[in-house]
Amino acid sequence: MRIEAIKLSKNYGSRVFALKDVDFKIDLKGMFAIIGKNGAGKTTLIRILSTQLLPTYGEAYIDGIDVIKDAHKVREIIAAVPQEARAIPWLTPIQTVLSYLMWRGLSYREAREKGIEALRTLGLDNVENEKNRKLSGGQKRKVLVATVLASEAPLIFLDEPTTGLDYLSRKELWSLLSKMKRDRLIILTTHYLEEAEILGDLIGILDRGKLLDLGDINSLRSKMEFPYSMKIYDPNFTLDFSGIVKRVNDGVQVFTNEKNVYQIVSMLLEKKIKFSVQEVSLSNIFEFLVEGGEQNEEVLEPGNSINTG
Amino acid sequence: MKRYWNQVIASILVNSIYAMVNYPVVLINTLLAPLSILAVVTFASHGTLLPVAALGALIMNMVQSGTSMQGDLSHLKNDMKLQDMVVSSPTSAGTYILGMAISELVYSIPTIILLLILNFIFVKITVIGWITILFDMLLIFTFSISLGFFLSTLSSDIVQSWAFSGIISPLLTTIPPVYYPITYIPYPWRYLSYLSPTTYAAEIAQNAAGYVHLGTLDFALTWIILVAFTVFIFVIALKKSRWREI
Q1: Beta strand pairing status for A57-62 and A202-207?
Q2: Beta partners for A6?
Q3: Does B23 lie at the interface with A, CB-CB under 8 angstroms?
Q4: Do residues B132 and B58 lie in contact, with contact meaning Cβ atoms separated by under 8 Å?
């Protein structure tokens, strides 16, 4: 599925930019995760692409179809669950899915069959005739996911589908989304960076309406000056190298490049100091891009001859 | 065409059938408002205004469909985000609204049946009179549904939506001469009542039943004004309502 945005912008009045000159072109099957802080423009972008909102200016295309001018054609191939969408409390899960599928044009019989199948896939078949209001938060969210899953739309938009769920419910939904993304494109917004890292085949980082970066986790890492994170369990450790050091509870956290990692590791092994080393996480990349790596007041300036003691 | 009707039926299922099946108590809700005013007017007039009030209750029921739809749409749009889900689907605004409008009629089927029985018993109307009333009801229904849709797209939360309903209902049904003949309103207040389209709808119905007499010119003028009100609000609803937000 190809998606293209050209100078996509949305402003409210002359001063408030929800989205500013967003450009990207993707051709993907899987999960495109859009991350950003609250107010970064994630929902605005997803609402424009899913034809719910008109941009102030710019263009967008889904599989070559103009999102702005040919919205009715786009709507044939997309399905969306908006942020804060709720399963209607007076309906049952099967009634929820069935009616949504009928809005997509399916007959009652077809909709019912597909609805039952989708609810079974999401493990909701035992509660399909309960009223939605009696379901748990995770189950209610799954009912909404079931509606778009059953639609068999090749492009699905999920705006913060796991917000407010406990960790286990989120993990359960991640596993379902991992299965769902195999044969379609899912565009998901989230502020859980772990979620984007686990699910996202492509990750877009938005900040204050601008797209800061776009790529898979490895390509995002490769653009980092210091793509490795080391934890050294000795608060008084001192060394000379190029990188960034943060004080943490039981030692120091070091961000550095591959060459320095080898040197530091051999030095630590020699001095028998405990340490761990890993590639930087999406959370680290996000901090550097959005917060400029200065979120933590304990951060020391990057450069040579850093005394961690 | 079949696909279109599936989409219409989806709105009817969600907004009336499933609500009635899952919570039968909602059926009483639609009965109460038209019947309570009918009862008050009937008792206060010692029964003399029962036929006029029975016709008025039909008009109120049609207007109530619009105000109810306004509340329902607003709730589904703002609290459930259902409208956004439907916007991102092949269903068009017109199809969604047609389904929702029919759903309001389905909701009030018990009320309509009861009111028709009352009218058949107490109001002596010719076949042509009934046909006139049918068109009259369709017009005022279209008016109220268009107004309801327009206001629902403007309201950003349910509290605002309740405020709209609270304003529309008395202005269109309780204050204007819907449950009683317009001759009961003294001048200059009578002129004010002509600001409401329901006054014209009531005059047409009362004329068809023989409770007021409209001359040919008045009769034509009343229809023209009612049609104009309806077309005006229908066009406004089409042009100004926000399906896809800007």
Answers
A1: unpaired
A2: A59
A3: yes
A4: no
CB–CB of A173/A106 below 8 Å? Answer: no
Kindly report the number of other CB atoms within 10 A of residue B212's CB atom.
Answer: 18
**Which residue of chain B comes nearest to A94, CA vs CA?**
B18
Tell me whether residue B246 is in a domain.
no
Domain range enclosing B76: 2-240
ipTM here = 0.87
Structure tokens at B112: 């309509």
47-76 in A: which are within 8 Å (CB) of B? 47, 50-54, 71-72, 75-76
B196: left (phi over 0), alpha (psi -120 to 50) or beta: beta
B81 to chain A nearest CA, in Å? 5
Of the candidates A122, A136, A173, A181, the residue with the CA atom closest to the CA atom of residue A157: A181
Within a domain: B111: yes
Q: Which residues in chain A touch residue B82, judged by CB atoms under 8 angstroms apart?
A: 85, 88
Residue B198 lies in a domain: yes
Is B19 part of the contact surface with chain A (CB cutoff 8 Å)?
Answer: yes
Best of A12, A78, A103 to mutate (most B CBs within 10 Å, chain B): A103
Written as one string, the DSSP assignment of A34-90 is: EE-STTSSHHHHHHHHTTSB--SEEEEEETTEETTT-HHHHTTTEEEE-TT----TT
Which tokens go with B124?
Answer: 């002596």
Q: Does B5 touch chain A (CB under 8 A)?
A: no
Is residue B245 domain-resident? no
CB contact under 8 A, B89 and A104: yes
Sort out which chain B residues have CB atoms less than 8 A from A13's CB and list them.
Answer: none
pLDDT digits (tens, 9 = 90+) for A189-235: 998 999 999 999 999 999 999 999 999 999 999 888 889 999 999 87
**Cα–Cα nearest to A92, from B35, B165, B17:** B17
Q: Which residues of A touch B19 (CB under 8 A)?
A: 90
Which tens digit of pLDDT belongs to each residue from B58-82? 998 999 888 889 999 999 998 999 9
- Contact pairs from chain A to chain B, CB under 8 Å: 101
The model carries a pTM of 0.88
Contacts of A52 in chain B (CB under 8 A): 84, 87-88, 244-245
The distance of Cα B231 from the centroid of its chain, to the nearest Å, equals 15
Cβ contact (<8 Å) for A147 and B85?
Answer: yes
Q: Environment class of residue B45 by beta-carbon count within 10 Å: exposed (0-12), middle (13-18) or buried (19+)?
A: middle
Cross-chain residue pair B88–A90, CB shorter than 8 Å: no
Q: How far is CA A127 from CA A95, A123, A134, B18, B119, in A?
A: 12, 9, 9, 17, 46
pLDDT tens per residue, range A126-171:
999 999 999 998 899 999 999 999 998 999 999 999 888 888 888 9
Summarised one tens digit per residue, pLDDT across range B173-218 is 888 899 888 888 998 988 999 999 999 999 999 999 988 889 999 9
Domain total of chain B = 1
Residues of chain A contacting residue B14, judged by C-beta atoms under 8 Å apart: 88, 91, 95, 99
